[in-house]
Design brief:
Elements (H helix, E strand, L loop, with lengths): L2 E7 L5 H8 L5 E5 L1 H4 L17 H14 L3 H12 L4 H6 L5 H17 L6 E7 L1 H10 L4 E6 L2 H14 L3 E3 L2 E3 L6 H24 L4 E5 H6 L1 H12 L4 H8 L4 E2 L14 E2 L13 H18 L8
């Protein structure tokens, strides 16, 4: 049976980067943000083809439909419905005998088996939705959650850049793009950082053996140590990834869907300078620190000054 490595946490925390890095291990297939991407037929896969035309994904859909005896679109609908935050209470209260749980668990197992190539026994999914993390840990055997966190000031910096470029913020599957007065939107982003990460902390308390917290800043600063933590956690050799880090060899990107623009680059080399971009007005940095302080303390993050 193929097992599921699920990256949870907030957006702009480096999940696409970690997803791609892990996909460079021979035993792991990296897929990107599966929940969001699996139904977007017109969106591009990282290979450059549209999702509907990419031969890898076409084969996955065919294999899935043969094994599950259900259509791929049924799996898309069920996945999207369950992963929405409004399904959090239902996901917590459900039992393994609940009808929709049985159905989605079967879909998840067939998706995982259809995704993995013969020798690959694990898939990485960086969908991040917390409701899906809870579902996998409760109902899909052998699932693991990596909680990727990043300082909220840096997360708000990414949001601020997107707002300035007119790319908008994604919030509960809606795109928000104010013309000016970014304050309320960044306030919403900082509050979501706190609430979202608190929910994943609750997962840690319930499933401590299936949870690993990784700081994005550590992954950039001391990648070998962090990869070794993940290696121990998922019990798969990540020697190939460590070798690429040491030799500054580019990480290959296979057939990722639904993640950020980074996945379209074909390959990338880990760049420590990326962790220190600025550009966020100081008032918003202060806002992020005030709202997120309880978790800043827990995570050992310092009050972050912005040049
Ligand atoms: Zn592709």
């Amino acid at each position: 049976m193929t097992s599921w490595i699920y990256i949870s946490g907030r957006g702009h925390s480096g999940s696409t980067m970690l997803d791609i890095m892990l996909g460079n291990a021979s035993d792991i297939q990296s897929v990107g943000e599966l929940v969001a991407g699996m139904g977007r037929y017109e969106a591009k896969c990282s290979c450059g083809e549209k999702f509907k035309n990419c031969s890898y994904w076409r084969d996955v859909r065919i294999r899935f439909e043969e094994r599950a005896g259900a259509s791929w679109d049924d799996a898309v609908q069920e996945s999207l419905r369950q992963a929405h935050i409004s399904r959090l209470p239902a996901t917590i209260l459900a039992t393994s005998e609940t009808k929709w749980v049985k159905r989605l668990r079967r879909y998840c197992e067939h998706i995982a088996d259809s995704l993995s190539q013969s020798q690959q026994k694990r898939i990485v999914d960086s969908s991040k939705e917390i409701t899906r993390a809870i579902f996998l840990l409760r109902f899909v055997p052998e699932s693991r959650v990596i909680h990727l966190i990043r300082h909220p000031v840096n997360v708000l910096q990414s949001d601020y850049r997107r707002l300035n470029k007119g790319s908008g913020l994604n919030y509960l599957r809606k795109r928000l793009q104010p013309r000016r007065w970014y304050g309320p939107y960044l306030l919403l982003s900082a509050s979501s950082w706190l609430a979202g990460n608190l929910l994943v902390e609750a997962i840690r308390m319930i499933h401590p053996d299936k949870y690993l917290r990784i700081h994005y800043e550590d992954l950039i600063r001391q990648p070998i140590e962090e990869v070794e933590k993940i290696e121990k956690f998922i019990d798969v050799s990540l020697d190939e990834i460590k070798r690429k880090i040491k030799e500054q060899e580019p990480f290959k990107i296979s057939h990722n869907i639904g993640g950020n623009h980074m996945r379209m680059k074909g390959s990338f080399v880990l760049d420590p300078k990326k962790a220190h971009r600025s550009g966020l007005p100081k008032r918003y940095a202060i806002l992020a620190n005030i709202i997120c302080w309880p978790l800043l303390l827990l995570y050992g993050y310092s009050w972050r000054k912005i040049q």
